[in-house]
Amino acid sequence: MPDAGLFAALASERRLQVLEWLKDPRSHFPPQRDGDLVDDGVCVCFIAEKLGVAQPTATAHMQRLARAGLVTSRRIGQWTFYRRDEAAIAALKQSITADL
Hints:
Arc Repressor Mutant, subunit A, 14% strand
């Protein structure tokens, strides 16, 4: 059974929206100067802009998802890029289905 922290991370509409956008980042975010949207992830500055929040707020949301194991992060230069951890999300779906 997944822990409560994981469900807390999913309890935010904004975090759920970001996870949805990250399914297909090329459809939801502009090309980046550094890093590939799919291979490296999406820069937190683009996530903040799309959410309409300050960068520290977006970073807090993304760190919450990272602690829950739903996204991975990668530093490129001064920026942090996030992408979905598809294996972890698949395992979560399977666990929820099996436990309920």
